[in-house]
């Protein structure tokens, strides 16, 4: 099947942790995916039938591509969406990439006052403490945030906890859970209107497999 450019959908995928589960979900939904997507170093790949062009982006950049309409759809974590606050539609909870956004620190710091917090998620961290009426300084770190309380930079971190292994191996504990995170399907607002047929089709198929995997898992 050949597809003209106007009907081709561009989908931005998040590189990294959620990629394997994302591809498994797309395939289960019968959405065409290039065979070599995970092995390839290409950043733009077409599905074998030409109906979908995939762009492989850093997760934090996915909402930007979708808001500006260079991608019609995006697959990205709720953590990134909350932090980015981009103007787009969130269509579906894909039920993969499940983890928790938590306030963590040393066990003995549990009852201490929070003065400084390190995070990759400046907005989520600041909002959380503001909503609790606490004045804290939030310091941005790009990764390995768990280091901050260990070496005395901050009293707490706000970070994702998946298995809890990183915390445990570094002697840190969860002080508070802020929210549950999972991967979402998002759409550009204009594409959602102009390409509604294709987007509805993909959303329905993904909803179907997502609902099934929830049933099996529960
Ligand atoms: C994430 C997160 C934690 C870790 C949690 O980091 O920031 O550090 O995973 O996973 P766990 O509970 O299963 O141990 P990532 O590996 O994405 O790298 P980063 O520290 O550079 O952000």
From TrEMBL:
This is ATP phosphoribosyltransferase. Gene3D superfamilies: Periplasmic binding protein-like II (3.40.190.10). The keyword Nucleotide-binding applies. The gene is hisG. Lacks the C-terminal regulatory region which is replaced by HisZ. The keyword Ligase does not apply. Pathway: Amino-acid biosynthesis; L-histidine biosynthesis; L-histidine from 5-phospho-alpha-D-ribose 1-diphosphate: step 1/9. It catalyses: 1-(5-phospho-beta-D-ribosyl)-ATP + diphosphate = 5-phospho-alpha-D-ribose 1-diphosphate + ATP. It comes from the Bacteria. The lineage of its organism: Bacteria, Bacillati, Bacillota, Bacilli, Bacillales. It is found in: Cytoplasm. Belongs to the ATP phosphoribosyltransferase family. Short subfamily. Keywords: Amino-acid biosynthesis, ATP-binding, Cytoplasm, Glycosyltransferase, Histidine biosynthesis, Nucleotide-binding, Transferase. HAMAP family: HisG_Short. It comes from Effusibacillus dendaii. Catalyzes the condensation of ATP and 5-phosphoribose 1-diphosphate to form N'-(5'-phosphoribosyl)-ATP (PR-ATP). Has a crucial role in the pathway because the rate of histidine biosynthesis seems to be controlled primarily by regulation of HisG enzymatic activity. Its EC number is 2.4.2.17. One of its GO terms (cellular component) is cytoplasm. GO terms for molecular function: ATP binding; ATP phosphoribosyltransferase activity. Heteromultimer composed of HisG and HisZ subunits. Residues 58-207 form the ATP phosphoribosyltransferase catalytic domain. It is an enzyme of class 2 (transferase). Pfam families: HisG. One of its GO terms (biological process) is L-histidine biosynthetic process.
